[in-house]
Amino acid sequence: MDIYLLCLIVGGGLLALSLLGGHHGDLGAHPADAEHPGTGELASWFSLRALVSFAAFFGLAGVVGSAAGLSGPGRLVVALVTGLVVGALTAFAFRLARSRGEVSGAAARLAGRTGQVLVPPGPGRPGKVALTVAGQIEHLLARSDDALHAGDTVIVIGTDAGVLDVKAWDGRQP
């Protein structure tokens, strides 16, 4: 098995899993970024997202280059350029989105958002709510002390261990 196929399988598999599994963490953001301005830009080039994108597209370009009959050095150049361009675009896109507050693994940023109950939480078990986050509808686990029904509007009041704490919301300010 050559390096291109290995990169395509590993990088492509991780990329597919991240696309199918959603984003419940932001491995590209580092708390030190706020303490040392400028390090966030450099660190984003080596974030997990950028590295996975590089590996997947490096491998894809190498495999396609082989199928197209490119020689070893030509295939390497095409694979490196493709991987670097896609990795850089990924880093840039997520850095831009993070600077606009559109990407965050911090559930605290969800506090105050409203959504709808999909599966009502019950005693001792979480339910599911739909919230709009960064222009996309996210289905997240939630618990509540209120008696909720599917379709009820709720407001996020906090989070604990990745599960949202929600309350029934009638649209009025508290």
TrEMBL record:
Transmembrane segments annotated in the record for this chain: 50-70, 77-97
Entry superkingdom: Bacteria
Keyword list, A-Z: Membrane, Transmembrane, Transmembrane helix
Family annotation (InterPro entries): NA-bd_OB-fold
Name recorded for this polypeptide: NfeD-like C-terminal domain-containing protein
Lineage of the organism: Bacteria, Thermotogati, Deinococcota, Deinococci, Deinococcales
